[in-house]
Design brief:
single chain, about 475 residues, alpha/beta
Length: about 475
């Protein structure tokens, strides 16, 4: 493919050398460059690709795309100066793979909580409806029936377009994609043609990355600002930021809510551990998912499916078939009649939602024991807030490690404990080792009690000092409860 064709729609500021040079592939990691490649110098959070231009050329790069031209220009190499290298990478990736997003119906789901559930269940629903579909999520990537391991909530532009091309080649009609604030901010979704977007909610998260909540909100909003007129924008108007998302969008504006007037409305008629009885736009449906937060998720799924052309009664039937997503309110009941719930809740809002859901289905004749930690090298402001919620809404709260990363877990727990109010001190205990914390919860539990293990959900590892160790909350609690029942 010629460099000039790959550069279509990029904001070019200067060119040194020919653009009719043949390029074998695009790379933004200099270590992966081989003969005939174009190297894109991205300014990342950890390193600056501009520092590796010479290395890329030494490895055989025939073209360099960068924001600042190097002091030394080599005659045999073409240099393209662009305003934003990450934006250029997005358009170049789309061009290189033949703009695959334009050949299927791509739906992006953004917001603080619910992205994975909505994307995964939309994929599941359309598969059950007989369509070939793709999924780009935090948990996994699906190219129709072929599963790939996910590395980021929103992958880099090259990876996104690579998978979209594979989906087209596999005959997929739809793709459902989580769109994170990091992904939007880093231009990873630029150059993609979206059929629609879904906004779930906005709460305290990623303030280690974004300078303020307003910036976090505005980054999410920019996704809707760039949707085309032909697309739809589905937003939760029970969240005060829902209407903000629609302010400047050209897309068709669609609302959903449980509490206020909206295009799509739902009432919860029954809420129990076996599922929900919902009334959606006047029609009743029984679903296997639990809790108010899942009522919102299912309503968004319903609205998206209708706007993608499915018939109302067929969508209701398909909703009733949906199974819960890995690590999202997954539960088991042990032989000793102890209910253990594993949930990805790693923000204050998500933790409160899960605990509120448990509150609606419990009898209060049992105790609720919550095991929770907070991630290291991430937003520190949410630590005391999460500890306050856990200690206030549980009968016992055990503070432990999540993914401490480079931080000392003891320091993270100390930050959490600052949020515990005096009347809740006696309800809390700190156990640094996550397995031992789960074991303590199981030992404290009596028949009919409920254990919530929050924060990691689907993750099957713990990251400590740069090393990932095998760790699965659900597997761990199952094994411990089985041992205690012997």
């Amino acid at each position: 493919m010629l460099l000039r064709d790959i550069l279509y729609k990029t904001a070019i500021q200067a060119v040194k050398g020919p653009t009719d040079v043949a390029v074998s592939k695009i790379e933004f990691d200099s270590r992966l460059v081989t003969n005939g490649d174009v190297f894109v110098a991205i300014r990342g959070t950890q390193s600056d690709g501009h520092a590796f231009i010479d290395k890329a050329i030494a490895l055989g790069a025939v073209a360099i795309v960068c924001e600042v031209l190097p002091d030394t220009i080599i005659d045999s190499v073409s240099y393209v100066q662009v305003k934003s290298a990450s934006s250029a990478l997005a358009y170049m990736s789309a061009n290189y793979y033949g703009n695959p997003s334009a050949s299927l119906k791509l739906v992006g789901i953004t917001g603080t909580n619910g992205k994975t559930t909505i994307a995964t269940l939309l994929y599941q629903l359309f598969k059950n409806a007989g369509f070939k579909a793709g999924l780009l999520s935090t948990v996994k990537v699906m190219v129709d029936n072929v599963e790939h391991k996910a590395t980021h909530t929103t992958p880099d532009s090259l990876t996104i377009n690579k998978y979209l091309r594979e989906m087209i080649d596999a005959g997929c009609d739809y793709c459902f994609m989580e769109v994170s604030s990091h992904g939007i901010h880093q231009h990873r979704t630029e150059g993609l043609v979206f059929e629609g977007g879904v906004f779930t909610n906005l709460s305290h998260d990623h303030l280690d990355y974004h300078s303020s909540f307003a910036e976090y909100r505005d980054v999410k909003k920019s996704f809707f600002d760039h949707l085309p007129k032909s697309a739809f924008a589905i937003v939760n108007v029970d969240d005060k930021n829902g209407l903000v998302m629609l302010q400047n969008t050209a897309a068709k504006k669609i609302t959903y809510a449980l509490k206020t007037y909206a295009d799509y409305r739902a009432q919860i008629l029954e809420n129990q551990l076996s599922g929900l009885l919902l009334k959606i736009n006047g029609e009743e449906v029984w679903v296997k998912l639990i809790g108010t937060f899942n009522a919102y998720n299912l309503l968004a799924i319903y609205a998206a499916a209708i706007n993608l052309g499915l018939e109302q009664l067929e969508v209701l039937r398909l909703l009733s078939l949906l199974e819960s997503v890995s690590g999202r309110f997954q539960f088991i009941v042990s032989a000793g009649n102890i209910t253990a719930i594993v949930d990805y809740a790693h923000t204050p809002d998500a933790l409160e939602n899960v605990l509120s859901t448990i509150e609606t289905i419990r009898t209060r004749n049992e105790q609720l024991i919550t095991v929770v930690g907070c991630g290291g090298d991430r937003d520190t402001a949410k630590r005391p807030v999460m500890a306050h919620i856990a200690s206030n809404m549980s009968d016992r709260a055990i503070f432990t490690s999540d993914n401490p990363r480079s931080e000392a877990p003891e320091d993270i727990i100390e930050d959490m404990e600052k949020g515990v109010e005096p009347q809740n001190y006696k309800k809390t205990v700190a156990v640094v080792d996550r397995k031992q914390a789960i074991k303590l919860a199981c030992q404290l539990a009596r028949p009919n009690d409920i254990i919530l293990i929050a924060g990691k959900g689907h993750e099957t590892y713990q990251e400590i000092k740069g090393v990932k160790y095998d760790f699965d909350d659900m597997q761990t609690v199952k094994e411990i409860l089985e041992q205690l029942n012997k």
